[in-house]
Amino acid sequence: MLVFTPSRPRLHWLNLNAWLIFELCDGKTEEQLRQAYLAAVSRKLSPDEAWSQLQAGLAQLERIDVVRKSEAKEVYT
What are the residue ranges spanned by the domains of the chain? Predict the structure, then answer.
């Protein structure tokens, strides 16, 4: 999946894991996001592995400005 970041005009190619995280970031709190991600990957990953992958994926998506955490509402968009 390709995404465009208008703040830093670029196209980014997301792998399947990054795409899943991106799709889940629709105003969920961190806990809601963690639960949704775990539900999606629980057949392949332990809860600890899922949390680790989610944190790494969120950090990467935030770094390239694809998602951001709203400090006021504590949700990812």
Answer: 15-68
